[in-house]
């Protein structure tokens, strides 16, 4: 039974862009939103300590970013509930708990992938957040940790968090995590992907909404996974080749809209960029997220080079983008 204040099951997360530390900041998300209206975007992971005790506004975002999910890092149910309540008040569409990051720093804070070994605690965290918000509370996790990588272990974790915590939506990274011996980057590449295991999990928990994450390189691959799953989450490919998002609304969500034109997207960024520059932001802080936009298009290398060499300079403004754009547009 759902708590009385809890919304009905969240619509399947058909296509989303993963939370990526140091990458999916508000500038990145504003840019990605111009490429796809329907894709669910996630913030970088934000710790409960930063939100509660930090001096900055760690919940800031642009209204244009919706639909938008906040990913929280933490393991104190009370602190997570406090942050979830604040996030809902600020208008976030989903609260996600990080149970997948394997970095030493995250483990030292007792959150991330190490929480897979504490299913009851994760359930308590989810339940505490669900009690105070009406937006969906979801969990992003791995398929196992260290030597706790059996299918039975995974089922026990998901079953406990779903039944005791009331979690209805899981995003499953189809690799296990090694909590020591591998860097976060190696943990994204060395443990083998096991898509069949995630497919089986969905079959064994048909009442739960499940999205698959890990290693997805194209919309064709995403569509193939959607034959088995409710949704797919794409990470680094969407960041390094953001142009793939231009066709998501048509190819994944089935809208009648035409694919976003990358040149038009760049120019649609101008008002936002000018506003941010007037507030003291440097051009390079924004354009670093746009470098891969023209991947596979003649002139893409010149685009990247021009932005990389000039966007960081003092006084850099829209003219830098126009100059870079001409290197691509003239060859299209």
From TrEMBL:
Residues annotated as binding FMN: 19-21, 71, 140, 173, 213-215, 235-236
Q: What class of enzyme is it?
A: oxidoreductase
Q: Which UniProt keywords apply?
A: Flavoprotein, FMN, NADP, Nucleotide-binding, Oxidoreductase, RNA-binding, tRNA processing, tRNA-binding
Q: Where is this site: Interacts with tRNA?
A: 98, 185, 188, 301, 304
The catalytic site is made up of 101
Q: Which Gene3D superfamilies match?
A: 1.20.120.1460, Aldolase class I (3.20.20.70)
- Tell me which EC number(s) this protein carries: 1.3.1.91
The segment(s) forming the DUS-like FMN-binding domain are 17-325
Keyword check for Transferase? no
**What CDD domains is this protein classified in?**
DUS_like_FMN
One matching Pfam family: Dus
User: Which family, according to the similarity comment?
Assistant: Belongs to the dus family. Belongs to the Dus family. DusA subfamily.
NCBIfam families per record: PRK11815.1 (NF008774), yjbN (TIGR00742)
| Name the UniProt record assigns to this protein | tRNA-dihydrouridine(20/20a) synthase
Q: Which organism is it from?
A: Shimwellia blattae (strain ATCC 29907 / DSM 4481 / JCM 1650 / NBRC 105725 / CDC 9005-74) (Escherichia blattae)
- By which gene is this protein encoded? dusA
